Amino acid sequence: MLFTVIKKNSYQDSINLMLLTNSINTIAGITKCSIMMGTAANKDILKNGGLLTAEGEAAAPSDMIIVVETADEKIVETVLSEADKFLNDLAVKKKSTGALSVTSIDAALEEMPDANVALFSIPGEYAVEEIEQALDKGLHVFSFTDNIALADEVRLKQKAHEKGLMLMGPDCGTGIISSIPIAFTNVVRPGNIGIVGASGTGIQEVTTIIDRLGGGVVHAIGTGGRDLSEEVNAITARDAILGLEHHDPTDVIVVISKPPAKKVRDEIVELLHSLSKPVVAIFLGEKPDHHEGNVYLAHTLEETAMIAVDLAKNKPVKPNYMEAITYEVKTPLAPEKTVKGLYSGGTLAAEAGMLIAEALELGKLTKQEGYILNANGYQVMDLGDDIYTQGKPHPMIDPEIRINKIREYAQDANTGVILLDCVLGYGSHPDMAKALSPAIKEAIQTSRENGRKLYFVATVCGTEYDPQSYQAAIKTLKECGVLVEESNAKAVRLALKLKGIDYKEQDKHVVAKQGGKKVLPEISDSVNDLLNSKPRIVNIGLTSFTDSIFAYGGKAVQYDWRPAAGGDKRLIKILNALKKIEEIETANNEVIDRMKSSQPFLVDVVPAKSVIGILNDKVLLHAGPPIEYKDMTGPGQGACIGAVLFEGWAKDEKSARQLLESGGVTFSPCHHVNAVGPMGGITSGNMPVLVVVNKLDDSIGYCIMNEGIGKVLRFGAYSEEVINRLNWMRDTLGPVLSKALQRKEGGLNLNVLIAKAITMGDEFHQRNIAATLVFLKEITPLITELDIDQKEKYEVIKFLADTDQFFLNIMMAASKSIVDCARKVTSGTVVTTMARNGRNFGVRISGMGDEWFTAPVNTPNGLYFTGYSESDANPDIGDSAITETVGVGGMAMVAAPGVTRFVGAGGFQDALKVSNEMDTICIANNSNWSIPTWDFKGACLGIDARKVVATGTTPLINTGIAHKNEGVGQIGAGTVRAPLACFEKAVIAYAKKLGIDVE
Predict the structure, then answer these.
(1) Cα(708)–Cα(724) distance, rounded to whole angstroms?
(2) Which of 82-86, 191-195, 444-448 tops mean pLDDT?
(3) Nearest-10 crossing angle of helices 634-647, 720-728
(4) Rounded Cα–Cα distance for residues 681 and 876 (Å)
(5) Which of 136, 409, 442, 479 lies deepest, with the highest CB count within 10 Å?
């Protein structure tokens, strides 16, 4: 049976997941297992393997799909446990590297302003825009990432060149920059040789041989395998060659190329002839018969390294660098016996295929279905070809496919020799020789038992400084019967010798180059900096790529990349288009400036109908986006019943229900009339409202006053106790506060009160005790001066003193006055409203004015009063998320560590984590509201809908929890996440408004 588990929004690098899959597949009882991200390409792989279920089909690109085929359902729990352990171990390893982790390239550049290289190892389907962004920020790019369209490679390389930068790659497997090993690479001693190559095992073979010969390498600049194609026209190769020409420590330049386009090849050779430094060049597939001027043309990678070392040591270049094969062959293999090559390195495979084809006159090399050579029974395979690595790790990491091929070829009676490479270095398998040994021993034994002779010939590509042991790898291979040679060329020659063929190289002499040298252009300051300093790298993708950087003196920041918009390509396209519109940034900054410059003052408390005209009839205001009574949840309907009873529109609950159900009451969102309402938000004409004026532009915010906690109207209670309290608030509390505020010229400056209270541990949504006390300190003297009954004074002051959350409603009115001021900017992507009606969560953004974008609201997570549980909870409700809209509440969780446990968020570190996370989706910080526990950083300001969609991080809201049934009231408190779909809808609508194709 197939069992599928989806881990939502749980991105992991594909290589890590491939290794995890291999590990899981060793568990007894599993027929097959696959663990992949839910991209379209991965779903195709699962489908082709018969592992795609309906659950997997529904997964998003940012979801991890775990599919297990087993007869025992209990095995699934084991798989999940092992997967968690594996991923936790990755997290521990990541932490131990010491690399600082960030979640955006901007954050990386804040941490390392002098960064000069972006190292990419992310899926190719998402890479183009990310690489372009790095180039736009002035970073050279090293792209281990492959599967980038040729047209995109051309465009990006042209852009890099115009900016004075280099794009190394795509599919740039290895590199050395200022003696720092990069990506899948060997550790080579420093020296005076600079290399430009396609960046794979060609560079690895040449550099490791140089090291073993006593030479050293200062740079090995990868270009990617297509750079010397006619389409790309060697953009990176030209810039790299010129860079090494102007790099004083480089005395010898080496150029390594797979078969290039003839026109490009000739132009590159012409460029090489214009250099002042000697050059060694190898164009694989060519068999040069002479050298030209200062350009020495090699035939094999080994010869390339040998010539380079002689030049670097000021020794004359020899006519021939072929050394004798010391292994003695007494009886050559029979004519029908053939050679098979199983290579993890594409360039090594190409070299092997070339030499075998030349020796046996087998014609040109092929490049079909992973074969480099496939003629007359002779086969050389590049097992790193895409056909073999779809959904599987590269053979340098994972021995499985090579082991299977060894067993397959060993069964072929015509196989006489199996050629292998064993590539060491950072990123490669920790002990590939040991991993291959059992299969090799088995194959040799099986052949012997069948009366056949089977040879294994290998080369180890590595140095003594690599993380694996070079000598130990050779020893392991020899002990299991492998004939090991010093280079790939020697290994191929030995394989041919076993066939009775003694391969020879012809002498080459130097021929004078006719014609003068061309004037070479200067290099850019950026290239000069790259070649003359240790790299400062933003590592985007595989964390392990920082290992070699740190080990050899480089600097790195880890960008924990994940696909924007959960991998949704439509949304990614829209976000990228919006990013290019400069007017959006201008508008967003204007919105932020209005928010930051706002001056909210509490000036009065008045009957709602005196300032909100639509409340002069049977009209009720409610929280959130528009909703009718019939669609309201329990707390909303309960609050409506209470309001009808309070207003005297009905005498009892039954008649109140009849009035509401008959349509006798009209409803409007609070937000449509400059108001906000907590929880149900139900506001009627005779309820007193706080009046806050934003003196920046006279925008007004209204909000009913806080009733306290427990059985209160806003949570859907409507008992006699609730109505009596509302009557007292109407008749006493409101008028007394109004009279007191009239004695304060201009009203109370709420910015001052907020700034004080945030330093005292309030976040203004779930914790308002400090702000309420500061308000009480300001209002009490004004109340005591009033010429009213002492009992009324006492009742009001005591109510304020007893109602810790009283300031919440003041903060809500202040926040409304701030956002309505900001909403007068009618462009941009800043979120200007967040509100919930118990059914839907609604947002509005600056560029879309009054339009609501809604999605089903979530139910809060939190702590419950005794006797209640999550099953009793109503989905989130209320306009109080206006506080998060202006950057406090859950956004400022770090300001109120004392409330984190109450809302189920843990301790201080959890609060800090939340605020740091919220900061990533905001544009700025509000210096008016400085938070001491956040190193005095200002509260978050300006939620950017684009950032929410790009990161998948939605605002966290602190909230009370209402019982789902009317009449019960508050049953707990907690936090809730805004649904992502609201923000996605808003961004799509705004893009459409701007004329962007959203399909």
Answers:
(1) 13
(2) 191-195
(3) 60
(4) 12
(5) 409
Cα-based distances in Å from 785 to 361, 737, 754, 782? 110, 12, 25, 5
Average pLDDT over residues 154-175: 96
- Average pLDDT in the 381-402 region? 85
pLDDT band at 97 (very low <50, low <70, confident <90, very high): low
* Same CATH fold assignment for domains 101-321+519-562 and 591-992: no
Cβ contact 713:680 at 8 Å:
yes
Distance of alpha carbon 941 from alpha carbon 889, whole angstroms? 12
CA distances from 503 to 491, 496, 500, 660 (A): 11, 7, 9, 97
Query: Are 969 and 711 in contact, with CB atoms under 8 Å apart?
Result: yes
52 sits in the region (left: phi over 0; alpha: psi -120 to 50; else beta) called beta
Distance of CA 449 to the CA centre of its chain: 54
pTM value > 0.85: no
Level-2 CATH architecture, domain 2-96: 2-Layer Sandwich (3.30)
Structural tokens at position 808: 């919440």
CA angle 966, 972, 976 (to 5 degrees): 95
Residue 833 DSSP SS3 = strand
pLDDT of residue 95: 52
What is the token pair recorded at 441? 């021993």
Instruction: Note the pLDDT tens digit of each residue in 731-764.
Output: 999 999 999 999 999 999 999 999 999 999 999 9
Distances (CA, A) of 311 to 71, 215, 220, 304, 318: 65, 10, 17, 11, 10
What is the 8-class DSSP label of residue 276?
S
Q: If you average pLDDT over residues 364-392, what whole number do you get?
A: 87
How does residue 795 score in pLDDT terms, banded at 50, 70 and 90?
very high
Stretch among 343-347, 393-397, 993-997 having the lowest mean pLDDT: 393-397
Q: Does the domain at residues 101-321+519-562 carry the CATH identifier 3.40.50.261? A: yes
Residue 96 pLDDT = 52
Name, in order, each residue with C-beta under 8 angstroms of 540's C-beta and a sequence gap of 6 or more: 105, 118, 119, 120, 121, 122, 130, 134, 559, 561
- Where are the domains positioned within the chain? 2-96, 101-321+519-562, 338-504, 591-992
Query: Check: CATH 3.40.50.2000 for 591-992?
Result: no
- The tokens describing 457, both together, are 């010939």
* Strands in 319-428 per DSSP E: 338-343, 371-375, 378-382, 415-423
Contact between 565 and 203 (Cβ < 8 Å): no
Burial class (CB in 10 A: 0-12, 13-18, 19+), 798: exposed
Looking at 3.40.47.10, 3.40.50.970, 2.130.10.10, 3.40.50.261, the CATH number of the domain 338-504 comes to 3.40.50.261
